[in-house]
Amino acid sequence: MPELLLVSPFSGLVRDLATLDDPVFAQRIVGDGVAVEPASDATRIVVAAPCAGVVAKLFPGGHGIALETDAGPVLVHVGIDTVELRGEGFTPRTGDGATVAAGDPLVEVDLAAVRSRGFATVTPVLAIGGQRVDTVAPVGGTVAAGEPLFRVVPPS
Q1: What is the DSSP letter of 51?
Q2: Average pLDDT over residues 5-17
Q3: How close are the terminal C-alpha atoms of the chain, in Å?
Q4: Is the pLDDT of residue 156 over 80?
Q5: How far apart are the C-alpha atoms of 58 and 3, rounded to whole Å?
Q6: Beta strands in 17-147 (DSSP E)
Q7: Are 78 and 90 in contact (CB under 8 A)?
Q8: Is 88's pLDDT higher than 80?
Q9: Sequential DSSP letters for 25-50
Q10: Do residues 132 and 1 make contact, with C-beta atoms less than 8 angstroms apart?
Q11: β-bridge mates for residue 46, sequence order
């Protein structure tokens, strides 16, 4: 499998997973990567595909999207504990089995609605197949949608 560069699914602050208030993400139990936090004044975002792939699973409600890529599986999880919203504030723009290119819309998120219910909007972007992750974007810095986040190196 080849290496793959993942780009930011939207503009925001790059955070280390260890700083998240969810032990599954913070301890990298699901996989490795980084999180992107939308600006506090952003009210809506379109979460775009961080790379080319096939939508292996659009989670019910649209809060999570698993992609099968040439370098293994990747997960974009919008927010923390947002499964509890049961789709409120999320408008899927793709579906299971869809082929996507980097930058293609996956889900539109009403950040104001998510925040008003008390949920964090920080979004982990993860390699979930045991791949090595080489961070490209500086943690603590900002990225624009489509700018490089990290490189996925398949397991040897």
Answers
A1: S
A2: 98
A3: 9
A4: no
A5: 24
A6: 32-37, 44-48, 53-58, 64-69, 72-77, 90-92, 99-100, 105-110, 123-127, 132-135, 142-143
A7: yes
A8: yes
A9: HHTTSS-EEEEEE--TT--EEEEEPS
A10: no
A11: 108
Please state, in angstroms and rounded to a whole number, the distance separating the CA atoms of residues 149 and 7: 5
Structure token digits, residue 6: 């993942």
Using a 10 angstrom Cβ sphere, with 0-12 exposed, 13-18 middle and 19 or more buried, the burial of residue 55 is buried
Residue positions annotated with a catalytic role: 77
89 and 45 in contact (C-beta within 8 Å)? no
Amino acid identity of residue 140, one-letter, is G
What's the predicted TM-score (pTM) here?
0.95
* Token output for 143: 């990225």
Predicted pLDDT of residue 63: 96
Residue written as token pair 């603590």: 140
Place of tokens 């990290």: 150
CB 62 within 8 A of CB 56: no
What's the helix, strand, coil split of the chain in %, to 5?
A: 10, 40, 45
Q: Averaged over 13-37, what is the pLDDT?
A: 97
Residue 57: predicted pLDDT: 97
Q: Are 9 and 28 in contact (CB under 8 A)?
A: no
Q: Of 51, 62, 148, 46, nearest to 99 (Cα)?
A: 51
- Residue whose tokens read 């810095």: 141
pLDDT given for residue 107 in this prediction: 98
